[in-house]
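I am still getting used to backbone structure tokens and would like to learn alongside you. To get us started, please write out a protein record for me. Start from the sequence, derive the backbone structure tokens from it, and show both lines together. Once you have written the record down, we can walk along the chain together:
***
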Amino acid sequence: QSQVAESGGGLAQPGGSLRLSCVASGFTLENYAIGWFRQAPGKEREGVSCTSSGSGTTNYADSVKGRFTISRDNAKSTVYLQMTSLKPEDTGVYYCAAGLVQGGCTLDLLYEYDDWGKGTQVTVAS
């Protein structure tokens, strides 16, 4: 059974950092695109960053460019999201998802991702 699981969320001060991890099991991570998404209370789920299968090309939402970095360690079946210069508007539940996305990865087409984790809470507040 393929699944992904997030960890690393918590409370951070504005300007602080957190690193999220997404551990995959039941499938070969290298063959899948992985996306990070977040959902704030009362808002729709939005794409934050993603990394494609194979070459591992990356994509970022404009709101996190220059602050967040996605990386993957296929040997450890883990994808990381390093978040720096955190802002209160980064608060939300962060989800990772895996999908056989062709030609790269997408932040907009959530249906391209088949396996979703349960999420990890990130709260940015002073």
